[in-house]
């Protein structure tokens, strides 16, 4: 009831009468009043005027299920939403849900993570009230060797969504870190369960620093937040919705060819590595090169003194941009 009422109040251009709400939802005025009361207690500012009805005035920066579902405009991303005040890891929960049979588009969101994981198994704790910690479940019908490209699609979606909500550039450090003014604002971790020629599921974990005003000393030189870089308090639920909308759009383009050929140009336009000297941390021997964009399969094209090479995995640093976190 809360979700439907919230959606109705947000969709209304003006006051919506209690009688109209009663008839729309088939409930009593008391039920409407109780639902409004619950929303007010959750931080929503709702005006109630006699002979006019109810009107939503402002929305808190909250990530409850009702808020996320009430603003959802996507076709399949977020079709099922699981919200947790505190969780060990959204990726871990998403994998469990996928194994239990939940469909493509299932979304796990947490206010706080206590055992979040980054690349190379690095652990971190995600504080409450300032960030976005979300994981999207996919059950794609293509070969497992295509799955790595989903990480780049997610990076493009986050970059586009942040830019859309702030009006400021959010660049991509290949393959999937999001950078603002040379510091990391978002990390993405994609994990896959697959057979030899079949994908069981893929989970894409996204962590965005939104309202953080400071970071631990060990990462303060390399990490930042949207608030710190733009001075803007971005609504986290609206940013999640924007990410999902962009991901759906890019994913549909990807499915047409099962590669990134339709997205290479746009990805390269957001690539902070583009046409810059980079250091490739090759397991055998690190080397200097010039980044020239990505291939349709997501590899980074680099020019070295020995000629052109393709980097398919590992880390790449850019001069003037943060190191390895």
TrEMBL record:
The UniProt record lists the BPL/LPL catalytic domain at 65-255
Superkingdom of source: Bacteria
Q: Where does this protein hold biotin?
A: 89-91, 113, 117-119, 184
Listed CDD domains: BPL (cd16442), HTH_ARSR (cd00090)
What catalytic activity is recorded? biotin + L-lysyl-[protein] + ATP = N(6)-biotinyl-L-lysyl-[protein] + AMP + diphosphate + H(+)
Gene Ontology cellular component terms for the protein in this record: cytoplasm
According to its UniProt record, this protein's enzyme class is ligase
According to its UniProt record, the EC number is 6.3.4.15
Per UniProt, which keywords does this protein have?
A: ATP-binding, Biotin, DNA-binding, Ligase, Nucleotide-binding, Repressor, Transcription, Transcription regulation
Residue ranges forming the DNA-binding region read: 18-37
The biological process GO terms on file are: protein lipoylation; regulation of DNA-templated transcription
Task: Please name the SUPFAM superfamilies in this protein's record.
Answer: C-terminal domain of transcriptional repressors, Class II aaRS and biotin synthetases, Winged helix' DNA-binding domain
> Do you know which InterPro entries this protein is assigned to?
aa-tRNA-synth_II/BPL/LPL, ArsR-like_HTH, Bifunct_BirA, Biotin_CoA_COase_ligase, BPL_C, BPL_LPL_catalytic, HTH_11, Transcriptional_repressor_C
HAMAP family (alphabetical): Bifunct_BirA
Function, as annotated, reads:
Acts both as a biotin--[acetyl-CoA-carboxylase] ligase and a repressor.
Q: Which family does it belong to?
A: Belongs to the biotin--protein ligase family.
User: What's the protein name?
Assistant: Bifunctional ligase/repressor BirA
The organism's lineage is:
Bacteria, Bacillati, Bacillota, Clostridia, Lachnospirales
